[in-house]
Amino acid sequence: MVKIAFNSALAQKALGKEVPAAVKDPELASAPAGSEGSTGRCLLTLLGIAFILSGLIVGGACLYRYFTPKRLYHGAMQFNDVSAGAGGESQPYYLPRVEEEVEISDSMAVISIPPPRFRPGDPAYILHDFNRKLTAYLDLTLRTCFVIPLNTSVVLPPQDLIDLFSQLMSGSYRSYLVHEDLVVTERIDDIKPLGFYIRRLCDGKETYRMQRRSSLPGLDGLNSGGIHKRSADECFTIHHFENKFVTETRICKA
After folding, report:
1. What burial class does residue 4 get, using C-beta atoms within 10 Å of its C-beta: 0-12 exposed, 13-18 middle, 19+ buried?
2. Which of 26, 33, 43, 93 is the most exposed place for a label (fewest CB within 10 A)?
3. pLDDT in tens, 144-185
């Protein structure tokens, strides 16, 4: 009987050739997978940071646009009411004076009108939304809002308004009076479609829509024997300027 024996060292050497290096060294086996996972986590982190930064930029822009005061001006303008007959006579010794504080940005202008001195009139806020082409009057006595389409023939655009008030800050300006007659037509129950600025001004207050009396058939002769004579209690008057002349806005119930 012949006994065959193998060299154990040679056998281990042969087996070693068949075993992959990854099995021998577990760290080598796990290195590629760990590297891929780390890269994925880095990409997700970068995407998260970019998303957060973009949100901060957009949010900061909105806050700057809506809540940060841009430019605040103060101005005064004296006026002569030609329609009252003063134009054909000698100029009066004292001319009425209108004072305003106005905040102007690229998209809106808010005018603060204090109670007038030595003449009739009402204190008010007037807001011009240049993007939505709307104007809102807030009567501070009645705590009521009135909204009408922006009159671009009376209200200067933002940059021209800035130029006007920059000149007025150096001194008062003498001008003339223009009359504007507005009529309340209907109540507005939902003010959200009016935009952010008007919603902020008129929130919690009764809000009405208006039209110019000249555009309503049958109402333009109200003062001269028309439908009925308006009571002074149903109207209020605001003197203001957003141009090189003073506007007397009278708002009445139809």
Report:
1. exposed
2. 93
3. 999 999 999 999 999 999 999 999 887 768 899 999 999 999
Please choose, from the candidates 56, 160, 57, the residue with its C-alpha nearest in 3D space to the C-alpha of residue 106. 160
Contact call for residues 247 and 241 (beta carbons, < 8 A): yes
245 class by beta-carbon count within 10 Å (0-12 exposed, 13-18 middle, 19+ buried)? middle
Q: How many CB atoms lie within 10 A of CB 156?
A: 19
In DSSP notation, 165-203 reads HHHHTTS-EEEEEEEEEEEEEEE-S--GGG-HHHHHHHT
pLDDT score at 226 = 40
Phi, psi of 2 (to 5 degrees): -100, 130
pTM to 2 decimals? 0.68
Cβ–Cβ under 8 Å, residues 145 and 205? yes
Residue 124 to residue 126: CA distance in whole angstroms: 6
Strands 124-129 and 134-139 come out as: antiparallel
* Cα 136 from Cα 134, distance rounded (Å): 7
